[in-house]
Specification:
alpha/beta, Rossmann fold, Arc Repressor Mutant, subunit A, 5-stranded parallel sheet, 4-stranded antiparallel sheet, 40% helix, two-component regulatory system, WH-like_DNA-bd_sf, Sig_transdc_resp-reg_receiver, cytoplasm
Amino acid sequence: MQVSDKNVKVLVIDDEAQIRNLLRMALSGYGYEVKEAANGKEGLNFALTFKPDIIILDLGLPDADGIEVIKKLREWSSTPIIVLSVREQENDKIMALDSGADDYVTKPFGMGELLARIRTALRHRTMVTPQMSIELDDLKIDLATRKIMVGEKEVKLTPTEYEILKILALNAGKVVTHKQLLKEVWGPMYENEVHYLRIYIAQIRKKIEADPSRPRHLITEPGVGYRLI
């Protein structure tokens, strides 16, 4: 599904003026309406008044940690959040995603990649239809009937495989962390059993991917989790 760039409002929360200027010029050139905030308090206020379609957030803010800003936003908003940060540690990425961020891009970044991540996050908002049917190219997932189609072929999944794919489909385009998947499928006691996921993800790929060794849909985010695209 295509998402028009026109009338899409982007809120940039970053204390670096150079980054804000770069993003404003680049995103405005693609038709986005951009609002800037230099700190967490200002960003939260603009999130209320500007009503952005997507938020780009730095974690290292002068008045608050970006993780706390994400948590506060998620108390009342489901607006997609893309973290843009110099922090490269897996723990930082996992913490941001578990707190409610939709995606994570490290600085320095390529504008082409960031634009693609923005388009993916915006598409995610409209992927689930009222009939609860999700289509990702040749992969079709009907959540009402639990029917999975790859092209014209119906795919049979085990109950556990289906639950994993359903969670990823409902968050299509977003990174779902190992912890999130394990908690939702097996329960809180299994949050560290990452080997469970590796086994089941491999089985799902054999059923939905043309070439399981080079997946197009079910992508691994090393050390963090998985993304369905």
